[in-house]
Design a protein that fits this description.
Largest sheet: 6 strands, antiparallel
Shape: rod-shaped
Helix content: under 10%
Structural class: mainly beta
Length: about 400
């Protein structure tokens, strides 16, 4: 070796250069290759010092580019640190809004984490019940629409302990006290203050708590049935027409006489049941006086909006038991007269008369049997026939 040193011992260490360490295989020993190529003065040429030490792949060891480029002093060049918003400043070095202190700007963690689009990560938004969902993102849990879950505003605001804020509970009299929490007069024990219950005649007593004239037993005073139009009072005597007994009803489809065609029985006093599940009823009001000629015939429980024919005869068929006909029973026999077709009201009612005695030439002592023949529901009938009949009614005219 000592004979091979001339011009071949760059570092004068008496070792031929080709026998020295040469990490980059450039023919020059490492310690002769350091001038201008060992930025961190660690005795390793820079190009041999890059493995795991050149995060930005710029050919310069990371620890040589820290001066003025390591704002957080983590020995990593700033351009290699996380920068979620790509503004050239590492996330941990910029003045950021970081509500959850995870060193990530809030603006960088909104995707899929901002249910109400208010630019605040969900885990930083108000969550009064700590269920992981911001208060104003909880659907179906805010009865008063104030963006606060119902369960979070119950303290001092749930007088009946039903888990619902008081302002969302029924308050029929609008006095800001839930009906179930105030001391009320509740004559019918239905949980509703009397002042909020129906009082059709405005006498200060709930309809179903007062002693009333209620001939049709529907829980509504007769005077209110008449004033509302729910009942007719064609003779203006203050009694619903359906409660007055004029003539003699017979031939019911309630099983008391001839059986209905397909066992489609109506309730007591009705005709055979129609497609709506009830039987039609024929009743009369006014009087049987030929002179007054004020007899009114009233049909109820008809199929709404359909044609109904009132006809009369002189006898009762089958001794008043009737014979099967369509979906009902025909009860009227003898010479038949048509007394008019009506289209039933939305409540299934129709009225005929007065004036029939004069129009038909009926005289005192004459007996007329009457019945309604009507179309049934277009959607389907109990026995498949398109028509039905109500009960029979016999009227004996007098002076």
């Amino acid at each position: 070796d000592e004979c091979d040193l001339f011009g071949n011992d760059c570092n004068s260490n008496n070792i031929p250069d080709e026998c020295e360490f040469d990490c980059n295989n450039n023919g020059s020993p490492d310690d002769c290759d350091l001038v201008g190529n060992d930025c961190n003065t660690n005795g390793i040429p820079d190009d041999c010092d890059l493995l795991g030490n050149d995060c930005n792949n710029n050919g310069t060891p990371d620890d040589c580019e820290l001066a003025g480029n390591d704002c957080n002093s983590n020995s990593i060049p700033d351009d290699c640190d996380p920068d979620c918003n790509s503004n050239g400043t590492p996330d941990s070095c910029e003045s950021i809004v970081d509500c959850n202190l995870n060193l990530i700007p809030d603006e960088c963690e909104l995707s899929g984490n901002d249910c109400n689009s208010n630019n605040i990560p969900d885990d930083c938004d108000f969550d009064c019940n700590n269920n992981g969902t911001p208060d104003d993102c909880e659907v179906g849990n805010d009865c008063n629409s104030n963006s606060i879950p119902d369960e979070c505003e119950l303290l001092g605001n749930d007088c009946d302990n039903n888990g619902v804020p008081d302002e969302c509970d029924p308050d029929c009299n609008s006095n800001s006290i839930p009906d179930g929490c105030e001391s009320i007069t509740d004559c019918n024990s239905n949980g509703v203050p009397d002042e909020c219950d129906p009082d059709c005649n405005m006498n200060g007593t709930v309809d179903d708590c007062e002693t009333i004239t209620d001939c049709n037993a529907n829980g509504i005073p007769d005077e209110c049935d008449i004033s509302s139009g729910a009942s007719f009072d064609n003779d203006s005597n203050g009694i619903p027409d359906e409660c007055e007994s004029v003539g003699v009803a017979y031939c019911f489809g309630d099983g008391s006489g001839t059986a209905c065609p397909c066992a489609n029985f109506g309730a007591a006093g009705e005709g055979c049941a129609n497609g709506n599940g009830s039987g039609a009823i024929l009743s009369a009001s006014g009087s049987t006086s030929v002179v007054a000629d004020d007899l009114l015939l009233h049909g109820s429980q008809l199929v709404p909006g359909t044609a109904a024919l009132l006809f009369s005869g002189t006898t009762r068929i089958n001794g008043g038991m009737g014979n099967q006909f369509g979906d009902g029973l025909r009860c009227v026999g003898g010479p038949v007269k048509r007394l008019g077709v009506r289209i039933s009201s939305p409540t299934g009612e129709a009225t005929w008369g007065p004036g029939y005695a004069a129009a038909q030439g009926w005289v005192p002592g004459e007996v007329r049997t009457m019945q309604i023949w009507y179309r049934d529901t277009p959607a389907g009938t109990p026995c498949g026939n398109p028509f039905n009949l109500g009960n029979g009614l016999e009227v004996t005219y007098d002076i």
